[in-house]
Amino acid sequence: MANLTIKDLPDHVHQSLKEAARSHGYSLNRYIISLLELSVEERTRRKLMREGRQEFRQFLATLPRLPDSTPLIREDRER
Prior knowledge:
The protein has 79 residues and is mainly alpha-helical. It has 3 helices and no strands. The chain has a domain at 11-63.
């Protein structure tokens, strides 16, 4: 496992993290690790979603263009 040192952490951020860790029953170290893990997971999910959207757009581009359905809808409403 790697170690990480954070320099120049504002006091109010440190205090807020300590309070949140205490309220969750975690040590400060464990709480910060859990926040970092969530952040990495979220970033990975967002990347997969972007890639999925690109694949979907590429798939849509391969589909044939359909004619405008407006005249058919109007005709059906008039009946």
